[in-house]
Amino acid sequence: MKIFAFFAALFVATATGTAHAQDRHITVNGTGSVEAAPDMATLSLGVTTQADEAAAAMRANSQAVAAVLSQLDQKGIEPRDIQTRNLSVAPIWSGRPQKEEERRITGFVASNRVFVRVRDLDHLGEILDAVISKGANDLGGLSFALQEPEPLAAEARARAVADASEKARQLAEAAGVTLGRVISIDEHGGARPVMRRAEMAMADAGNVPVAPGEISVEVSVSMVFEIAD
To answer: Would the keyword Magnesium turn up in this protein's UniProt record (predicted)?
Structure first.
C-alpha cells in the first residue's frame, strides 16, 4: 500500500508539473488594415410600373427595363455584370380590412430589380443619370468594392501578425521572460472590407455626383507564443 501511495503521489506531481509547463505561454490579438480607393461599384436598380391590368403593368415594366438595359449596354457594361434579382407582379387593393370595408383590386404593380457592377468609376455618375432618365425609378443601393482584394488582404494579414508579435514582445519584456516560438495563429473571420468616408448625393440636373471614398481591408489574428525560460 505504501508503494502504491508513493507511485500515485509521483504521478500527480508529474501531471501537475506538465500542466504548469503547458500553461507557460502568452496569448495576444493583433489587427492590420490597408486602405485603398475602390475600383468597382454595385448598383441596385429597380423599375416599378402600375396599370389597370396585370399584363399591361408587366408590359410597361418590360419596356422600361429594356430601355435601361439598352442604356447600360451603350455605356459599356458587359452582360456578365448585369443580373436580374427580383421580378414580381402584385395587385393593388382598395379598402381597409380593419374598417370592415369591402376590398377590391384597383390595379396592378409590376417591379423588376437589376443588380449592376460598374468597373469604371469615372463613368459611374454618368451611368446613374442615364438609367434614371430611361425609367429606373427605384435606386435601392450603391456600394463600392475592390475587384482584386486579395493583395490588400495579404498585406493586412502581415500587419496583423506584426502587430500581435510586437505586443507579445512587449509583454514578455515587461514580465522579464524570454519570448519563445509561435505555438498557434488563428485568423478571426477572414479579411473584411470596410467603407471609409463614402457618400452619394443626388443632383437636380446633370450627372449624379458620387464620392467613392476609401475601402479599408481589415484582418484580426490571435497568436499564442511560448515562454522560453
So the answer is: no
Chain CA centroid to CA 109, Å: 32
- Give, as one character, the DSSP assignment of residue 76: T
- Asked whether residue 166 carries a pLDDT value surpassing 90, the answer given is yes
Q: Which of 27-48 are b and which e, b meaning 16 or more Cβ less than 10 Å from the residue's Cβ?
A: ebebebbbebebbbbebbbbbb
Which pTM value belongs to this model? 0.68
Question: How would you classify the pairing of strands 199-200 and 40-51?
Answer: unpaired
pLDDT in tens, 169-197: 999 999 999 999 999 999 987 777 776 54
Element (H, E) at 185: strand 179-187
**Any idea what the Cα angle at residue 167 is, between residues 166 and 169, rounded to 5°?**
65
CATH class of 40-145: alpha beta
Nearest alpha-carbon partner for 131 in 188, 207, 55: 207
- The C-alpha angle 49, 50, 54, rounded to 5 degrees, equals 105
How far is C-alpha 169 from the chain's CA centre? 33
